[in-house]
Write a structure and sequence with these properties.
By secondary structure, the chain is of the alpha/beta class. The chain is 31% helix and 24% strand. Helix 10 links the parallel strand 18 and strand 19.
Length: 368
């Protein structure tokens, strides 16, 4: 009986939410920012219930450098948020919320458009480690801004700096809305995002590799996921940080050489440095579009890719476009990711998507 009542209460609450994604032209948008980052995928993702409680997608806490860990347990429809030894559980079927010590809270999580939304005030009060404020914006919209200790700009400075991006997002958003059918999809109570059986990619593989040397956050994410993708390196990168190169080799990450213009010379120099730094003899090689497969050194395995987030590569895409591209693809896919802050922010969400869709995540093989 408790579950039925909770479900009815959740439905009533959802019907009272402000459906900000269904804004009409010439209305302001709602933006979410984390420190100095204004992600395009977080436009109109703020919802508010009739009592004024503000909810944001769970990805806000996990994908933009806030050091939270999020998981979802499909067996009992429970979302889990953790940070620095503190945990909080959100049962979506019953509306029950409790922490790792068994203390219960009156505020529930929500599911909207297939995404788990968490109450920002409760997360702030329980975990701390950040602050948040609402910036009354310009003609394009207002900003809900989350700030950690690494914040640089004040709210006023950030609003001024974000003006161009807000205008671009605003124009793109309403251009896309104008092309859609006017009828809006009904709001429904959905169980958690456990993967649509019609989008099951079991038996398909995603080959993941990186260009450049990774940061600590990228390595931590890969370690948690127990993945060992390949890192393609240039001579300059090996020479700049041989200690990190030795760490990668010692922890079992495959290493390859990336050639930009002169494959024979670049391969010879980089492979020699790699052997000096880590006693590692590479076989895998990749290159920019102008380098080409045919020009690679004899005895190496050339690695192609379908989608790349590395500037200068043929097929370059922004990190935010990877998930839509994967959703449209069929069969095996090869991804090349640039080692930068954008990739660090995207990587947990990307890996979660691949696991939910039951892809096999692999590294490029040295056997071709």
């Amino acid at each position: 009986m408790k579950r039925v009542a909770a479900a009815a209460l959740c439905l009533l609450l959802l019907l009272c939410l402000l459906p900000v994604r269904q804004a009409f032209a010439n209305q302001k948008l709602h933006f979410i920012a984390v420190n100095e980052h204004l992600p395009s995928e977080l436009i109109n993702c703020v919802v508010e219930d009739r009592d004024g409680a503000v909810y944001v997608p769970c990805t806000v806490f996990t994908n933009y450098g806030m050091d939270f860990f999020y998981s979802y347990f499909a067996s009992n429809s429970t979302a889990y948020l953790a940070r620095e030894g503190s945990q909080m559980y959100f049962e979506l079927n019953t509306g029950d919320t409790y922490d790792g010590n068994g203390f219960h809270y009156s505020t529930s999580a929500l599911v909207w458009n297939g995404m788990v939304y968490l109450p920002i005030a409760l997360v702030y009060r329980y975990f701390g480690g950040f602050s948040y404020s609402t910036i009354t914006g310009n003609e394009y919209g207002d900003i809900l801004r989350l700030k950690t200790d690494s914040v640089v700009l004040s709210d006023g400075e950030f609003l001024k700096a974000a003006g161009t991006a807000m205008r671009t997002y605003y124009e793109d958003y309403y251009s896309a809305r104008a092309a859609e059918q006017p009828a809006a999809a009904p709001v429904t109570v959905s169980p958690a995002p456990a993967g649509n059986p019609e989008e099951d990619h079991q038996g398909e593989a995603v080959s993941v590799s990186f260009l450049g040397l990774p940061g600590d956050q990228t390595l931590e994410t890969l370690e948690q996921a127990r993945l060992r993708p390949c890192f393609f390196l240039t001579a300059e990168e090996i020479r700049r940080d041989p200690d990190l190169v030795r760490r990668l080799a010692g922890e079992g990450y495959p290493l390859g050489i990336y050639c930009r213009e002169d494959p024979e010379r670049e391969w010879s120099e980089a492979s020699g440095l790699l052997f000096e730094a880590a006693w590692y003899r590479p076989i895998l090689v990749s290159g920019a579009a102008e380098a080409g497969d045919a020009s690679m050194p004899v005895g190496t395995v050339y690695c192609l890719f379908d989608f790349s987030t590395c500037p200068g590569d043929s097929g370059y895409v922004s990190p935010e476009l990877l998930l839509p591209l994967l959703e449209e693809s069929a069969g095996d896919v090869a991804l090349r990711l640039n080692c930068d802050e954008m990739t660090e922010a995207l990587l947990p969400r990307l890996l979660q998507y691949l696991v939910q869709q039951r892809y096999e995540i692999v590294s490029p093989r040295e056997t071709g």
